[in-house]
Amino acid sequence: MGLLLLLVGYFLGLYFFGSGIGGLIIALVVWGVMSLVAFFRGGNILLTLSRAKKISRDDHPRLYNVVEEMKIASGLEKMPDIYIIDDPALNAFATGRDPNRAAVAITSGLLQKLNRDQLQGVIAHEISHIKNRDVLLMAITAVLLGTIVILAWYATRILFFSSMAGGRRSSSSGGGSGQLIILAVGIVLIILAPIMAQLIYFAISRKREYLADASSALYTRYPEGLASALEKLAASTSQLKSANKATAPMYIINPFRKKGMRASNLTSTHPPISERIRILRSMAGGASFANYDQSYRQVHKADKGVIARSALTTVEPVSLRAATPEAGEGEPDQIQRARDTSAVLWQLSSYKTINCACGTKLRVPPKFKQSKIKCPHCGRINPI
Amino acid sequence: MAWYIIVGVIVILIIVVLIATYNKLVRLRNQVKNAWAQIDVQLKRRHDLIPNLIETVKGYMKHERETLEAITKARNLAQQAASSGPGARAKAETELSSALGRLLAVVENYPDLKANQNFLALQEELTSTENKLSFSRQYYNDSVLSYNNRTQMFPSNIVASMTGFKASEFFEVSVAEEREAPKVSFP
Predict the structure, then answer these.
(1) Are A274 and A372 members of one domain?
(2) Helix (H/G/I), strand (E/B), else coil: A49
(3) Chain B: which residues have CB within 8 Å of chain A?
(4) For residue A328, is it within any domain?
(5) pLDDT tens for residues A152-174?
(6) C-alpha to C-alpha distance for A91 and B46, rounded to whole angstroms
(7) Fewest 10 Å CB contacts: which of A222, A302, B1, B64?
(8) What is the pTM of this model?
């Protein structure tokens, strides 16, 4: 993909300035500036755009604990920040350019829907994006893609208008058949480069998703957790309000997915969910990368796996663990989870909670100035 | 002249490989150390939670004196074993795990206790600490495995034996004991 950028830059320079080097420099400068912005501000931009709110351990102990468990399982050195997005859509993402500055974010909708095992699977998927440095990788490729698209777009505009004006800038410098060939190759490249770059980008993104699924199974030793979480995600069709195209690969499922989308094609950032579930569910033998790879080959009926050869060296079997019993040992049910989640959201928007003696919970907005409030149920006057 | 250059290049290559192998070994050994420290943190956290748990539960569970005493005893034994090696420690901690498991299993019989906010928070902490413990054990054992493989496999074993890297001990929990479902008997 970097090569594509250099080629585009070179031909642009060759055409407009008479030498490839000038174009190369422009391409690299544009790319450099964009990368720096993405590198230093990327994570914050994403979190700000999605209006995510940072939580601490006391806000939601269960979520915090699950993230910490996965941090330990993956061997991350620093605890990532945790954010909640107030959105009924079901999704989650990871961000941060290196493992020491990482964050995971989850929508309130998803937090309510998932039980502990499923939450663990989803968080493990996100943590492995952090651990495998996918955030940085995808940011670099996205910026590269953006640069190519921008350069190609301007180049086609300029070519189009200069030909309308009836003069080619380089026509004065002699020309001939060599010039024509360069022109032809350049035009074809400028048209094809953005498309090719996009396809490469999607391919990389899908591969990292598979790797994150495999890592999730490895960390939790329980692929069924992520599989059933994905099943719940697949059943919901509400789209995330704040997602955008550039950040799509960081989410656990494609935020722009439409119902019945045939996603096994080349133009998707994520593999189809049904396929991801099938792979996870056919991991019968164990939870290692080798098991995932074998399961992938079985589902695709292909010889080629999806995990890099170098990661498949350990031959030690990794055994699966048993499921935590549903609704066992103080596991909150869905109603309780919904209550917990909304309590966190109220608190994060600095509402005060007052427990009235009749059992009603009063949520007092921060703008409320009076020192007493009347309970709408029983009429008791409560001090704030 | 050409021979000198070839020999020189080979010698330099060997030195580079030796240094790289040594550094890899150091990195893996540090990883094992860190993983062990993480287990230590979680074990300590569990020991700290137990007096709190007993205090909360005592008022509700009049008939479970034996279970509670067993937990306290197992905790004291585990704390004493804290300074010994992974093997002895794992044994003491497994005792404690199963004693705790017995307590959490009988909680179902005490609806008042299940409604207690303090207890619910403690239960979440305990469950999570158990999980963290098993995940840190998992990570520790994975780290030990890759470290031991390095110290024992050719050619890195040569560097390891020259510079004094020794294989580490796994943190094993007798699986049968841990997986055993807690028995609840009704008189």
Answers:
(1) no
(2) helix
(3) 31, 34-35, 38, 42, 104, 107, 114, 120-121, 123-125, 127-128, 131-132, 135-136, 138-139, 143, 145-146, 179
(4) no
(5) 777 777 776 666 555 444 444 44
(6) 33
(7) B1
(8) 0.78
